[in-house]
């Protein structure tokens, strides 16, 4: 449960959550490219080595009722600290340790005024554009399979 | 009785090497990769993830390859793997109404908000083998309908909900513990949370047969496929050290809402009842079967009498796990030499006694005849 003090409770995701979402959607190559584009970076200290674990995924009875455990998913997490002091965290589906570390660095950089704006152009914009294009293509393909019902004339008035 | 038996190590090593050779098949045929399985046998991957109870497409694909396509063996591999990992926690409950829908049909309402989209389906195919697929098939171009406005697609049951025609799910109590059969052994009667967890990881074939049995009259529930939807959904998790929801990425899910015949009482007008199914990946048969069995298992709760196998909680939940089932069935292959010796001794003794009894009664009869 989110804490009451957390602005995310209000509904709109925070900038930090939005950047984490971008990292979750990004490929390892996109994260690497973004970090390379922001070079030189502050020195990065590893606080917690990337670690693979599980998160139990919860559904809801009937889609909206009491939660139940559906099954687990692999998740990789990492924690880093920049020499400028910011701590970066990441939790991502899958087992890519490189991606988890890169995403933790992005989370830390996003809290640094010097890098936050540049991350938009280097990472958030291209990833969001790619995801939006992929989603639009998928939606267009799905929409073509939409059933258009029509009723046959039944010969009675 | 078990006693230590030594021997067979060399045979086992050789057998495993032979297994690896058989797995590879003819060396002049290119080897399949896990990523090919992930992309091209994605429904096998979905089944292994659901019943292996672990969402990881790459691992499930690897398991399918390692198991030579034996999906229960692949499920076993995934279950074994998950025991090696720590658990960070539980996700925020999934909001399936927010799914990016790739397939969504209803057999109860023709015109529903959000529409009916068939998506990638085997339905309405003619089930004719396609020889063109035997080798690399030409790439497929699909129709698109770009610019179609994405409509909200609320759950179909919400439509009935508004009119009080269907039972509502009791609102979630955030403080109620969520049962987890991977942490505590299953006890009966189990809550619906535990039942759904067991069914979600239960064997598709077993649940299919049980669901079918309810349709044929063994615990009839008069089901309609209220809605089946498949698509992608973002998962989030609140790590303790952060205290806010972290988006983890997207997963594919299939959900089925069955609408079943009525339940009413003196103080409540009759309403439709519901059964629920949810599975990893595109797994429609599984989600439908699960929803049928979920509803059947609610028989007692809904005031019915438990008479059929699909309604019997202990029968269903204790036998739906194919890893447990295969473990107990296949353990019969392991050496039981001592048990069998004991049975042999017992049988020989029984036969000796039988012969003695027969002989005694034969000579007894003889005496009687002589006396007559």
What does this structure look like?
The complex is a heterodimer of chains A (157) and B (372). Chain A is of the alpha+beta class and 157 residues long. Chain A has one domain (7-116). Helices cover 42% and strands 25% of the residues of chain A. Chain A has a three-stranded antiparallel β-sheet with strand order 1-2-3. In chain A, β1 (44-60) and β2 form a beta hairpin. In chain A, α1 runs antiparallel to α3, α2 (28-37) packs across α3 and α2 runs antiparallel to α4 (113-143). Chain A is elongated and about 80 Å long. In chain A, 39% of the residues are buried. The mean pLDDT of chain B is 93. Chain B has helices at residues 9-24, 34-40, 42-52, 57-66, 71-82, 156-161, 192-200, 204-216, 284-296, 313-319, 322-330, 337-371; strands at 54-55, 87-90, 100-105, 224-237, 246-265, 268-280. Chain B has two domains: 11-82, no CATH class; 96-120 and 150-169 and 179-328, no CATH class. In chain B, a hairpin with an 8-residue loop joins β4 and β5 (246-265). Chain B has a four-stranded antiparallel β-sheet. Chain B is of the alpha+beta class. The longest helix of chain B has 35 residues, at 337-371. At the A-B interface, α1, β1, β2, β3 and α4 of A face α3, β1, β2, β3 and α7 of B.
Write the layout of secondary structure elements.
The complex is a heterodimer of chains A (157) and B (372).
Chain A: H1 15-25, H2 28-37, E1 44-60, E2 67-82, E3 87-93, H3 97-110, H4 113-143
Antiparallel strand pairs in A: 1-2, 2-3
Helix pairs in contact in A: 1-3, 1-4, 2-3, 2-4
Chain B: H1 9-24, H2 34-40, H3 42-52, E1 54-55, H4 57-66, H5 71-82, E2 87-90, E3 100-105, H6 156-161, H7 192-200, H8 204-216, E4 224-237, E5 246-265, E6 268-280, H9 284-296, H10 313-319, H11 322-330, H12 337-371
Kindly list the characteristics that best describe this protein.
heterodimer; A: about 160 residues; alpha+beta; three-stranded antiparallel beta sheet; 4 helices; 3 strands; B: about 375 residues; 2 domains; four-stranded antiparallel beta sheet; 12 helices; about 15% strand; globular
